[in-house]
Amino acid sequence: MAAIDNRATQRITTIILLIGEASGVFAGFCPSWFTVASPFFHEQEAKAGNITRIRAGEAAATAIVLATGAAVSVALEDPVPFWASVAISGVFVAGYEYQIRNPSTASGGNANESVWNRITKKA
């Protein structure tokens, strides 16, 4: 039973550390979600170029986070850290893509529109 508890504790600790690492890596390559959703960002003439750079940042950050997850998985002989890094990166990328497609408004957006429609709408 101690081995199971130790393995579970190791996994939880590793996932928490991967989340923290991913936060720093994505912050290093991309602006904040707040900035990306702001009217200032969406009203710029260079919006298309900024979106291209954000997507390059998403790719670079995802590669680093996945490499970290893979390295930890190999070191611990456990696939969970790698799959956690995949999920964590997915959350960050989805968050950026949502902010790109849904600029902030004074009213908070269209309350009648479904979240799925807002996420999948073209930028």
- The number of strands is 0
For the record, the count of structural domains works out to 1
Number of helices: 6
Q: Give the DSSP E fraction (strand runs of 2 or more residues).
A: under 5%
Q: Can you describe this structure?
A:
The chain has 123 residues and is mainly α. The chain has one domain. 77% of the residues lie in helices and 0% in strands. It contains six helices and no strands. It has helices at residues 2-29, 33-37, 39-42, 47-76, 80-101, 115-120. Helix 1 packs antiparallel against helix 4 (47-76) and helix 4 (47-76) packs antiparallel against helix 5 (80-101). The longest helix has 30 residues, at 47-76. It is elongated, with a radius of gyration of 18 Å. The termini are far apart. The model has no long low-confidence stretch (mean pLDDT 87).
Task: Briefly summarize what is shown.
The protein has 123 residues and is mainly α.
